[in-house]
From TrEMBL:
The protein's name: Dienelactone hydrolase domain-containing protein
SUPFAM superfamilies, A to Z: alpha/beta-Hydrolases
PANTHER family: DIENELACTONE HYDROLASE, ENDO-1,31,4-BETA-D-GLUCANASE-LIKE
Gene3D superfamilies from the UniProt entry: alpha/beta hydrolase
Residue ranges of domain Dienelactone hydrolase in the record: 29-250
Secretion signal span: none
Coiled coil: none
Top-level taxonomic group: Eukaryota
């Protein structure tokens, strides 16, 4: 399921934002931050607005400062969703990025298979740099890609932040420690669905898991917040800390 909430509060993209740099990794442009000396990598997989979002890059810098080598790939090949282009709504844009054509523009089956496949060479590329363990976090669109990586055990830990398109079957298939951070106000992955995820994970003691529904926040809150809104910043930073704690625990 996707809809208006996936596209609310679009960021002002900035290709030079962040303290890291852009380089080619596995065939994709990627924003890179942190140090290779750690041998531990975190891949951040964006929402539909892509890898030039300043808040996302700031999060990458924060994770990098904690000792990880951080990679934020450009899965949309320079073509992130543009909410201001009324001639190309999300239902049309998404067809160019791996979607099944929808009957209803806000409710449709969707495959992030391309994002998953694009991640494989990125993982191989970071391994050639000496990386020995990898965690992946996905926001909205990116969460589905992370789930697929978890199913194939291509990463050591997973975090889903206000996920989109993730299903009960996806959660059943996950094989690595997973944290799911959701919003109370979320039409895309409502609390009732997250509770189902929690129940499934509770029945899988072999997979360490954590599910939290943050009160009074909406879908997208971890990366699409206003930096001049103290409450929004605080709520986002709380989720960032939980994500980082998860990686510190399981990416070793």
């Amino acid at each position: 399921m996707s809809g208006p909430q996936c596209c609310e509060n679009p960021p002002a993209l900035n290709p030079v934002s962040g303290s890291g740099h852009v380089e080619k990794l596995g065939g994709l442009d990627a924003y890179v931050s942190g140090s290779l000396d750690s041998k531990l990598c975190v891949i951040l997989i964006s929402d539909v607005f892509g890898y030039e979002a300043p808040n996302l890059r700031a999060l990458a810098d924060k994770v990098g400062a904690s000792g990880f080598y951080v990679v934020v790939p450009d899965y949309f090949y320079g073509d992130p969703f543009d909410a201001s282009n009324q001639e190309r709504p999300i239902s049309l844009w998404i067809k160019d990025h791996g979607a099944i054509p929808p009957e209803n523009q806000f409710h449709f089956p969707f495959s992030q298979d391309k994002g998953f496949e694009d991640t494989k060479p990125v993982i191989e590329a970071v391994k050639t740099k000496g990386i020995t363990a990898i965690g992946a976090a996905g926001m909205c669109w990116g969460a589905k890609v992370v789930v697929e990586l978890s199913k194939q055990e291509l990463v050591q830990a997973a975090v889903l932040l206000h996920p989109s398109f993730v299903t009960v079957d996806d959660i059943k298939g996950g094989k690595v420690p997973i944290a799911i951070l959701g919003a109370e106000i979320d039409q895309v992955s409502p609390p009732a669905l997250l509770k189902q995820f929690e129940e499934i994970l509770a029945s899988k003691p072999e997979v360490n898991s954590y599910v939290k529904i943050y009160p009074k926040v909406a879908h997208g809150w971890t990366v699409r917040y206003k930096t001049d809104d103290p409450e929004a910043v605080k709520a986002a930073e709380e989720a960032h800390k939980e994500m980082l704690d998860w990686f510190v625990t399981y990416v070793k």
